[in-house]
Amino acid sequence: MTVATIAGTPVHVDAEGFLTEYGEWSEDLGRGLAARIGIELSDAHWRAIRFLREDFRAQGQTATLRRVSTLAGIPIKEMFALFPGKPAKKMAYVAGLPKPHGCV
């Protein structure tokens, strides 16, 4: 496992830069991760990120876009606007979670 320093915090990451230790994440670290991919977090971003973290703790895996849309009430179109390009992958990255199954 690799240790990287992100936003001044040493964290364990996989080969793609996703955090591997749930407990190492903090909101400050989330801001730093978002900045690394060019996203400035708003309240709408935090709503998705907090849902993902809570759902991961309960389910043990990173939620899909469909699950976030259905359970958190965030339309898929909005997630694409908040996290352009690959929203599932970007949301998981900022939330400090593993890449969702099926993401390349």
Automatic annotation (TrEMBL):
UniProt keyword Cell wall biogenesis/degradation present: no
Entry's localization field: Cytoplasm
InterPro entries for this protein: DsrC-like_C (IPR042072), DsrC-like_dom_sf (IPR025526), DsrC-like_N (IPR043163), DsrC/TusE (IPR007453)
Keywords: Cytoplasm, Transferase
One example GO MF annotation: transferase activity
Any one Pfam family match given in the protein's UniProt record, by short name: DsrC
BP terms from Gene Ontology: tRNA wobble position uridine thiolation
Transferase is among the record's keywords: yes
Source organism superkingdom: Bacteria
Active-site positions on this chain: C103
EC number(s) reported in the record: 2.8.1.-
GO cellular component terms listed in the entry, alphabetical order: cytoplasm
Recorded family membership: Belongs to the DsrC/TusE family.
PANTHER family to which the protein is assigned, alphabetical: SULFURTRANSFERASE TUSE
NCBIfam families in UniProt: dsrC_tusE_dsvC (TIGR03342)
The protein's name in its UniProt record: tRNA 2-thiouridine synthesizing protein E
Species classification: Bacteria, Bacillati, Actinomycetota, Actinomycetes, Micromonosporales
